[in-house]
Each structure stands twice: as C-alpha cells, then as structure tokens.
Hints:
The protein has 408 residues and is an alpha/beta fold. 36% of the residues lie in helices and 19% in strands.
Amino acid sequence: MKILVLNAGSSSQKSCLYDINNNLPDSPLAPLWEAKIDWKGKSDTGVLKVETAQGITLEEELPIDERPKAIAYMLNTLWRGSTQVITQLGDIDIVGHRVVHGGEEYQEATFITPEVKVKIEDLIALAPEHNPVNLEGIEAIEQILGEAIPQVAVFDTAFHSQLPQAAAVYPGPYEWLEQGIRRYGFHGISHQYVATRAAQLLGKELASLRLITCHLGNGCSLAAIRDGISIDTTMGYTPLEGLMMGTRSGSVDPGILIQLMRQGKDAETLNEILNEQSGLKGLSGISGDLRYLKKPIEEGHERAQLACDVYIHRLRSHIGAMLASLGGLDALIFTGGVGEHQAPVRAAACEAFEFLGMKLDTEKNQAVSEDDTDIATADSAIPILVVHTQEDWAIAQECWKLIQRDRP
C-alpha cells in the first residue's frame, strides 16, 4: 500500500511516500521519496528539495507563486524525471495529512469528509498559522488526485485528548469550558511517537513508564506521559501557550495584553506581536533560530545572551512542572530540531535536575548523530534520550491502521 503523507507548516511543506505491505514493521520504514518546499519568508515562492531511497536528489527554486500549484509541481517529481518512484499518481492508495487543531470533536485520526473540512476551517482561529495550510494541502490533493482517493486527517491535538480535567480546564469563568475554551495541547503526533520509541529503547512497556517529552523546534512544547497517556502539556487552547519559542512568546501575564489594548493595540496587532515578534527573535533582535545566535553570543551580544538565558530558564521551569504532574520520572526525552541538534540546550536543561541523580554524559551529548540514543552516564538515575521524531511515519501508520479497519 502506497501512502502519501503531507505535513504542512507555516513556512514549509514536507511530503513523503511510504510503501507498507501486509503488516506494520516494528521500526520506521525509509520513505521511497521525500520532498520539502521551504517558502521564502512570507512570499509564496520557495525552494524544492527532493530525495529518493536510491539516493537521487533534486534541488530547484520553484517558478510558482501559488502554493497549491507548488504542491502539484512537487508531486509530479514522484513519477517524472530522475526522481520517479511510481508510474503514475494514480498508484497512490491513500493520503495522510497532519492537521494541527482538531478541537474537541476529533480525538483520533479520521477520514476526511466535507464535514471534517468545515470543522478544520472553523478551527482556523485557534491555529491561524497551521490549519489554513493544512486545509490547503487537502484541497490540493482533491484537485490533483481527485476526490475519490481517501484522505486522512491526523490531529496534533488528539494525543492530548485524555488530559485530566484538572490539567485541561482554565481557571476562568466556567462558561469558558462550556464554550470549548480549554487546554488542547499540540505536537501530539511527535510526543506520541517519541514516547513509543523511548519505550523500545528502554526495553520496557510504554504503559509502565513516566516520561517527559521535550519537542523543541521553532515551536516548543513538553508533555508529561504516564502509562502511555498524556496527562499534562505546556501548549494550551492555541499553540501560543507555554515555553518560549522561536518567534512566539509562550505564556505571558494576561495583564500585559490588557495594558497594550488600553494603549490602542488591536487583536491583529497583538497576534502579530505574540506569534511573530516575540520569543528568541523578539528578545535577541537577530533571529528566532538558536543556530544564528551562537556567534553573536560569543561576540558578547547582550540581547542574544538574554534571549538564550530566558529560553533555558523557562524550559527548566516547565520541565519541573511536568515532573510534579508525574510524581516521578523514568526518562527525559529530547526531540525536534533544537532538541535533536543543540547539545548546549540539552546540557543546560539537564543541569538543573542533577539533584535527582540525573547525569548527562558530556561526550555522548556532543556526539549525538542520526541514531536514537541515551546520552546519560552509566550511573545516571534517569535515562536522557535523544529521539529523532518521525511524524511522517507516524501519520503513515495511522493511515494504514484506519484503512485496514474501515474504508470510507
């Protein structure tokens, strides 16, 4: 069964093609083909990179100013030119999409229907950077492959749907809860995958473990996972709450926003400030990407140093909160672009928990490669894992399970 996965972000469009036969393997399969479009800033022109399982690569700037057309161009590399891996687009059996916000209605992967599309659109206000491009990808597939091909929405919020009420409910008027204003949580596909993978690495049943998963990228969130279930998480009603992020503020005193409104700032201006002009970028004045702050910090740039200090302080603080929710810890797990590739962040985060007997092996931390690994010392009381998240594979698995169970 050939499964196409579309994983759309606000600044990128990733896609993979998997071929799963009769049974799901225990380990992730390598995709037959994978492609990524990086959009240039806020414009709709981008760079396409394609790689096949045979090692054939393609990189070119897209001469296209509309995203749906760019997606069609990207998919054409599946069956045309040097990157061809299928004979025609009709060889694709099912398409899976990462959808960031599923609200209260969708607590598991589901086949996409007109009603599901309407709900995804209704939730745009809660995930304005993501749900629109998720919907755009769904509609592009309908145009390119036709409406007969089954499409599946895999929701980032689904893994957190079993949060206990004490964690999910905000301490505002009860009417908020009746209106659906509650903590939903995000990055659920990633948190669930790395938790499952961590159990494999530890040689234990997931249902027996207490885990803290740290998804650190441009967007950042933590999850406290007990018995395989998310019982607490840092993102909330929207992906804006919680940790400091690349360009997002994370949690701030609501009184600040009230004061800014009194000064004349409207909702759109506040949205722009909190989502695009805050976080690492806002404090440093340089970039929301930690890689571009290293040199300025070495040169004594005070704002860049401040941005990193605040980032680490808040990461430690929220790890502590997750620890309290769990009442103990069997492993701390890092994933995401920062979590997988920034050794100084992992070291700084773990340093605060040495009192628990958590000991980081400096050499292992610096030597992290593409392999999932334990970077704790042999005598550490708590394993410290780096797991490379594979959201696309997780989405493909959900598609396979769903179509085996019940075709639409």
